[in-house]
Amino acid sequence: MSRSDFPPSYDDSRLLSNPQPGGGYPASVPPYGFNAYAGQPPYPQPNDPYAGQPPYPQPNDPYRGQPAGYPPPNIPAIPIIPPGVGDNEGFTTTGGFDDISVRHTFIRKVYLILASQLIVTAAIVAIFTFVEPVGTFVRKNPAIYWVSYAVYFVTHIVLVCCQGPRRRFPWNLILLSIFTLALSFMTGNIASYYSTRAVFLALAITVLVSVAVTVFCFQTKVDFTKCSGFFCVLGIVVFVTGIITAIVLSFKYIPWLHMLYAAMGAIAFTLFLAYHTQLLIGNRKLSIGPEEYVFAALSLYVDIVQIFIFLLQIIGYAER
């Protein structure tokens, strides 16, 4: 059987349907079975200025014809998150911020807010202590205290449990201001039941304890943040014991029970102050993220005010 008995191939049929002048293969087409480009580099072009370059763009490869430093085309920018800055309800587990300047700015902001809160509280307590008509009025109208307690409780829950209002400016500062005024009013109301001497002694001891705990936490290698479970249990114990003590004392006043609870509360909130201070520092197992400055200031403020209230109860009882 000769080759003419088979149908023509694709290349032969093209030549038959569109014959080239001179017959046979055109001069530009290599003979059948011969690859003229075998062994040559892929896609070479005469006078190609990019010959030898990789065929695909590489990272940080500038546009051709553009100066170096331009981002590669069609590659979206990826934000760089510093290590240690995460978000798990405001807490990180990598030991704090690696950027020292960010950490120092965060600490300054927290202590500025805390100082403002304490100044407001001290002013209101001074009014309730030194202005006798004001102290008499609030003692005769306990409903005012419970209204302030309700405002304090609601704003405290919102700031602690709701991440959105706590981080959204200016609502976070508005809520923090309302919270500060409510707790300051409660503290002044409690201070109105004690003598001026007891208030000053409690204030002085609170300042000494707060400064000592802060300096200790900045210098010590002891990591209180490793015991977060213990502090959670301690907070529950203090809360439940406070409810039981309030119920018992409402029926019959037992001095030793009141003093026992006051001493336990002062010790517990001193430990809480150490724990929250180390969360603020940022170089321990757990730390507070830099966007949680409101939560950090609120935590330290509550600890210091509670220490003052419990010490005031102890000193006031000792004076009787």
Overview of the molecule:
- The chain is mainly α and 320 residues long.
- It has one domain (93-319).
- It has ten helices and two strands.
- Strands 1-2 form a two-stranded antiparallel ribbon.
- The longest helix is centred in the middle third of the chain and has 31 residues, at 100-130.
- The chain is globular.
- Mean pLDDT is 75; it is low at 69-96.
- Residues 1-69 are annotated as: Disordered.
List the helices and strands and how they pair.
Blueprint: H1 10-17, E1 91-92, H2 100-130, H3 132-140, H4 142-161, H5 163-167, H6 171-191, H7 196-219, H8 228-251, H9 255-281, E2 287-288, H10 293-319
Antiparallel strand pairs: 1-2
Helix pairs in contact: 2-6, 2-10, 4-6, 6-10, 7-9, 7-10, 8-9, 9-10
Which characteristics define this entry?
two-stranded antiparallel sheet, 320 residues, mainly alpha, globular, membrane, single chain
